[in-house]
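In this supplementary section we document a worked example of the pipeline. Step one takes a protein sequence of length 190 as its only input; no multiple sequence alignment statistics are reported here. Step two produces a three-dimensional model, which step three serialises into structure tokens for compact storage. The input and output of this example are shown verbatim.
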Amino acid sequence: MVIEILRQEHRNIEKLLLVLERELSVFARGDRPDYEVVHAVIAYFQVYPDAYHHPTEDMVFEKLKVRDPAATANIGDLAAEHRRGAEGLRRVARAVESVLADQELLRQNINDIIRDFIEQERRHIAMEERDFFPAAVKALQPQDWAEIASRLTDQRNPLFSEVVEERFEVVRRHILQLEQEAEAERSAHC
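The serialised model returned by step three reads:
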């Protein structure tokens, strides 16, 4: 169940990467992307992965270290991967803010920063899906999964966490709705 939750979160992240990629293609062809959509995607990435997704992965990874140290050695430093993703996101946020502040920047540089973030996130997710999750499924015992699940329940049951979860679901739906509206508006102008 824990792995299914993580995989679903990866699918949600991929949807947001697709939204960001579509807005990037608008920017790359010289049009103005919907910055409200871009900001919503950035806001989601600034909070949700580090608040929920990565801590869950960290718990699984810690259990895997005990059960199969060779697998974790093969996977590498998961925490460092997550930090690289956060740094990439900070670069994206700074680049978008620079564009909005009308600073002189090469369109290609902005494109490269955002493209790098998207590709880095996809490589990271692919590694987790290919190496980390299968190793965890193979090595962890039912009691490991039960302990992780109980810690997740404890982590998300307080009222604040439930409110936060609800807020992120609203943000996720809002992002997808904004993207549909932006796409329809661009199509109407073509």
